[in-house]
């Protein structure tokens, strides 16, 4: 579903992403791990067509993102880091805007999509509130609602549980699980338990390179009995 | 084309989601009418025309257009919503056009709110309605050209204050090129042809021609190409 081949992105003289390759199939929940600055977000931004890779390619459902970015964007639901949204709009206005731009022009189709997204992400209590007045947890849910509104075949989630309390984290995780049934999901995180809880595969990147690509079980088996974060630390020593 | 509508709508209504729109429209009305009455001698001239009203518009737009345009892109960059917008299924050109036309409509709305001036002239005297319509057309085109330049500048920075200041400076250059006082100064050491050439690069001669009722293809082409050039650069600036 999502295929990444030799992606490279350089900022100044720093290689943020250095030849990253992997494949995500429908039903996969890919946990994208790595220290801050390892290149997780940059990779996601290239897959979603926000920034252009210097080399390599990212294809979604067989479409190259640099060839036909609009077609790829239509197939992806993307939750950028810290869930940006237009703060002066209410939740309802914002989601209606997203629905319209996602192609649901008829009022009935649009409202149906919006209502479903609101119900799924439990946004009913704040539907008429402006986004800038929402708590972090609600803002994150608005970002979620926006990403899954058009039921995309691919979901790209950049730190979806960042800044949420434990209850909200649990809720978001079960939401991702239910969403993932026949979809390809990539989520980045640095919370290792999260990977254990929902991911079907782990990719660990360090200094722009993929160092691990395996199942959570195999990852755990690297050092039997050790805690996940110990394994993480030993694999990412190079990152300061 | 259809992707333009949602962004256009969001952007135009966005002005009214904050007090900005109301402050802007009131200042626009007070300044445009005030200049005509107190400096232009609207009544003293004893003429049934809006000439003393339109003559100040280039100088009015010098401050007001950068104020209306500074947020167009700078705000999206600062708030991170640029990443959201550019991972939705639309092209950069569509986004630029949508925002430009929304802001233009907003400026034209301010302009149309001054129509009571025209009706007053019509009630008091017997004006040439063709010239008045042409005056409004010229002012709308002038606003559009200034806006396109300021939109481009807003795309170059994430700081709205910088976008405003640079916008004013860019417009000042465009105004000075064709300002009669400046052209007279130039004619002291340049040939008539050279001064004429420089003057025609500025906005004022083209605006004044249309405002006097001379709808010349060259002036229309001037505004059209200035807008197209600035918007093309605007797209290029965002398409890194």
Task: Give the CATH H-level superfamily of chain A.
Answer: P-loop containing nucleotide triphosphate hydrolases
Structural class given helices, strands, pairing of chain B?
mainly alpha
Specify the oligomeric state.
heterodimer
Shape of chain A: globular
Termini separation of chain B:
23 Å
* Strand content bin of chain A: 25-35%
Second rung of CATH, namely the architecture of chain A = 3-Layer(aba) Sandwich
Largest sheet, strands/sense/barrel of chain A: 6 strands, mixed
- The helix fraction of chain B, in percent, is over 70%
Count helical runs of chain B. 14
> Using DSSP, what is the number of strands of chain A?
10
Measure the end-to-end span of chain A: 34 Å
Helix and strand composition category of chain A:
alpha/beta
- The low-confidence runs of chain A, each spanning 5 or more residues with pLDDT under 50, are none
Average of the residue pLDDT scores of chain A:
90
How many separate structural domains of chain B?
A: 1
Polypeptide structure, described:
The complex is a heterodimer of chains A (240) and B (240). Chain A is α/β, with parallel strands linked by helices and 240 residues long. In chain A, 37% of the residues lie in helices and 25% in strands. Chain A has a single domain, classed as Rossmann fold (3-Layer(aba) Sandwich), CATH 3.40.50. Chain A has 9 helices and 10 strands. Chain B has 240 residues and is mostly helical. Chain B has one domain. Chain B has helices at residues 4-16, 20-39, 51-54, 57-69, 71-79, 81-85, 92-112, 115-124, 129-154, 160-177, 180-186, 192-201, 204-211, 217-238. Chain B is globular and about 55 Å long.
């Amino acid at each position: 579903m999502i295929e990444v081949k030799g992606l490279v992105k350089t900022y100044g003289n720093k290689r943020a992403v250095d030849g990253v390759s992997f494949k995500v199939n429908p039903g996969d929940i890919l946990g994208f791990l790595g220290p801050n600055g390892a290149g997780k977000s940059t990779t996601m931004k290239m897959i979603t067509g926000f920034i252009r890779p210097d080399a390599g390619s990212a294809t979604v459902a067989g479409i190259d993102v640099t060839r036909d970015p609009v077609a790829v964007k239509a197939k992806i639901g993307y939750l950028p880091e810290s869930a940006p949204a237009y703060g002066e709009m209410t939740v309802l206005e914002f989601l209606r805007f997203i629905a319209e731009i996602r192609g649901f022009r008829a009022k009935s189709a649009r409202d149906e999509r919006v209502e479903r997204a609101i119900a799924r992400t439990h946004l009913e209590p704040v539907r008429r509130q402006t986004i800038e007045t929402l708590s972090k947890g609600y803002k994150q849910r608005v970002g979620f609602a926006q990403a899954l509104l058009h039921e995309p075949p691919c979901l790209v989630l950049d730190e979806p549980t960042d800044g949420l309390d434990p209850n909200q984290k649990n809720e978001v995780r079960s939401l991702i699980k239910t969403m993932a049934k026949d979809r390809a999901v990539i989520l980045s995180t640095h919370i290792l338990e999260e990977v254990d809880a929902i991911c079907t595969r782990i990719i660990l990147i360090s200094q722009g390179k993929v160092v691990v690509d395996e199942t959570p079980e195999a990852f755990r088996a690297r050092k039997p009995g050790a805690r996940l974060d110990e394994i993480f630390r030993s694999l990412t020593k190079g990152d300061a | 084309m259809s992707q333009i509508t949602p962004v256009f709508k969001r952007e135009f209504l966005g002005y009214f989601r904050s007090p900005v729109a109301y402050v802007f429209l009131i200042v626009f009305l007070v300044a445009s009418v005030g200049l005509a009455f107190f400096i232009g001698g609207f009544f003293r001239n004893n003429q049934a025309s809006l000439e003393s009203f339109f003559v100040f518009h280039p100088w009015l737009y010098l401050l007001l257009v950068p104020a209306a345009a500074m947020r167009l892109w700078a705000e999206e960059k600062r708030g991170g919503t640029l990443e959201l917008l550019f991972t939705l299924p639309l092209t950069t050109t569509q986004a630029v056009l949508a925002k430009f036309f929304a802001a233009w409509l907003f400026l034209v709305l301010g302009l149309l709110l001054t129509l009571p001036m025209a009706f007053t002239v019509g009630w008091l005297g017997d004006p040439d309605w063709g010239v008045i319509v042409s005056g409004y057309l010229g002012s709308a085109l002038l606003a559009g050209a200034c806006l396109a330049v300021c939109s481009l500048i807003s795309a170059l920075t994430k700081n709205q204050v910088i976008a405003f200041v640079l916008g004013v400076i860019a417009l000042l250059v465009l105004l000075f090129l064709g300002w009669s006082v400046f052209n007279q100064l130039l004619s002291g050491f340049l040939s008539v042809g050279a001064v004429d050439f420089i003057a025609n690069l500025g906005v004022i001669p083209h605006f004044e021609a249309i405002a006097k009722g001379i709808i010349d293809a060259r002036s229309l082409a001037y505004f059209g190409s200035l807008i197209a050039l600035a918007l093309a650069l605007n797209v290029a600036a965002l398409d890194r």
